Amino acid sequence: MVAEDTVFSVLYDKFMFWSILVGILTFGWMFLAMARYRDGVEPDTTDVDHIEVGSFPVDRHNTPLEVMFYVLPTLIVVWLIVLALSSNAAVWVIPDEDDAHNMKISGKQWFWEFEYEDALTWEDDEALTSINVDWPNLGSLYVNASGSDATNVTVTVEGVATEFALDQLTSSLEVEAGSGVDYFNPGSYSFIEVTNADGEVLHTWMNIPIGHVFSSAASEPMIIPCDTDVVFEMHSLPSDDSNPNYVGVQHSFWLPEWGVKEDLVPGLADGTYMTVEPDDPGIFPIRCAEYCGNQHSLMVGEVKVVAEEGLNQWGREDCSYDSGVKKTAGSQSGGDY
């Protein structure tokens, strides 16, 4: 999702459209009047009533023109209000937690923490890497890298790494469950990296369990799925509990390339919320848009958008579906032009 996909950018474009239209009409009439009635130009008085002493001038008016002067601006203002209200509703609607991927974001001095309230299993796009990893629950681990120059596989489960070599003839690997590596446990943080002879990572498979925490202090990105509503519950917290009277400072979680941000308010028990629906895979910057102390410049991070393993809500296994404007309330996306 890039900034032009957000409801704020769409709303800006629509207001700009109507502003340009009104500006053209207003300035067009102004320049026409300036040219027609400028000094030195004799006006055409053929159809103008000449005032005579002892008689009242004729009261002239143009009813259709007067009605248009009232009705047209009123309609434009009402339509702009409709656009703004529908967009306002879209921003504040939080998807049901069962229909979204839920994350808890904590802003501390001076780093971000990303806690997973829903598990996420993801894998790099096979169409781009020519590598596929299959590690079902209680099943054998299978890696097929026949279309690449991969040579090695590293399986890491809860920080313990085990290395394997791909079969040189088939460029594949099969490890029976419980033999060489433990059974796949959805509750364990685990990842598989497929590398070439130079150690370059060609393909990654990862399982992030509920409760796992990434930290920007450790240069770890926040990883979220594409084409899915992602709800951020955000809190400002102290770095430790040494001072019970200290509840943190004001932060502002900002995704500059997506055109969205939200404040993290210290002492607010329920926190604040923000919803996004990432559209494209990639790595995007995270910044803090609120001065939060001496090391405010360290409040940086990254969000990595990946394709969740299996079919998403659009029936795709990758991020190829273009879901359009990302914040909607029912069928509303900020209205139409």
Describe the structure.
The chain is an alpha+beta fold and about 325 residues long. It folds into 3 domains: about 5-40 and about 50-90, Helix Hairpins (Orthogonal Bundle), CATH 1.10.287; about 100-120 and about 210-320, Immunoglobulin-like, CATH 2.60.40; about 130-205, Immunoglobulin-like. It is built from 3 helices and 18 strands. The strands form 4 sheets. Strands 11-2-1-13-16 form a 5-stranded mixed sheet, with no helix packed on it. Strands 3-10-9-6-7 form a 5-stranded antiparallel sheet, with no helix packed on it. Strand 4 (about 130-135) and strand 5 (about 140-145) form a beta hairpin. Helix 1 packs antiparallel against helix 2. It starts with 6 loop residues before the first helix and ends in a 31-residue tail after the last strand. Mean pLDDT is about 85; it is low at about 325-335.
